[in-house]
Amino acid sequence: xxxxxxxxxxxxxxxxxxxxxxxxxxxxxxxxxxxxxxxxxxxxxxxxxxxxxxxxxxxxxxxxxxxxxxxxxxxxxxxxxxxxxxxxxxxxxxxxxxxxxxxxxxxxxxxxxxxxxxxxxxxxxxxxxxxxxxxxxxxxxxxxxxxxxxxxxxxxxxxxxxxxxxxxxxxxxxxxxxxxxxxxxxxxxxxxxxxxxxxxxxxxxxxxxxxxxxxxxxxxxxxxxxxxxxxxxxxxxxxxxxxxxxxxxxxxxxxxxxxxxxxxxxxxxxxxxxxxxxxxxxxxxxxxxxxxxxxxxxxxxxxxxxxxxxxxxxxxxxxxxxxxxxxxxxxxxxxxxxxxxxxxxxxxxxxxxxxxxxxxxxxxxxxxxxxxxxxxxxxxxxxxxxxxx
Length: 389
What we know:
This protein has helices at 2-33, 275-278, 351-356, and strands at 59-71, 74-76, 79-81, 88-101, 106-121, 131-151, 155-168, 175-179, 186-190, 203-214, 219-229, 237-238, 242-253, 257-268, 272-273, 293-306, 309-323, 331-332, 336-347, 362-363, 371-372, 386-387. The chain is mainly beta. The strands form 5 sheets. Strands 1-4-5-6-7-10-11-13-14-16-17-19 form a 12-stranded antiparallel beta barrel. A 3-stranded antiparallel beta sheet has the order 3-2-18, with no helix packed on it.
């Protein structure tokens, strides 16, 4: 009887061990399959409304925008593929920026973002392979300096350079627990890179902005370029360096309505792994071969300005995508990405306006140093000048 009992217990333990082993293997493979870097979105921590030069001296800009991403399109290089590794990727991201014009040529901004939701839905909406995160992402310190700022009678030209520093606030190795049905034990699996709140690394941001406006036609053309040098996080992982180049054309209608069209090319390199660090650390879920891309977007943007407030909305339309993949792994591409934002600008001190009191001159409420003896338009923002009281 004792021998029979031992054999039964041994078989039960083997079944239990086999179930646990199978459970771990399934979760291990799923963790690799769902490791998509920058899934469905951009490799840049900057979100919306970031194409700008410097502010006026003592001017403050409060800006927030909401960015929504949703995609279920998978690619192998530049072709759509039906081999989905999960159902869809979704992101709801709120971005905040406060900027201050330290001098007429130098602006300092502090920027950050909060993920209301960052979600990867498993195949057939399987809850055990669905991952979601929420919380603060990164803190960005972003000084900008005007190297050229020329205002002529009918035109205005500006060239700005910037150098930002990204400090990670959110988690980069967050995990989720799954309960093994036989033993009741909880096993923790690191969430895919796509739903981590941050890369976990300190990055450097290089920025250039060029602007040329035609005052009488209420027309402007401008461009910006970003290059983000990514660094390694404590796990020995380095997300691919990011770069973008965008050109814009915009025109103001009916004094307050602005229409802008953007064409943007962006790319992200493959992520890298420091093998020597991973020997001693706990790696995140990833598959480096299926990371990195090249994309082209067309983005129309509408804006409305009233006094110190500006509201705007933009929608990204991908017109070309090339995503790095391997023989066995696809990568999720871009589909829908929309941005809605509001900006409020004001001055800490408004001495320029006080000087105009009683003179009968006209001034711009947004740029009080722009004055005229009669009705005119501001050469900077193209608003109608208001008469000083």
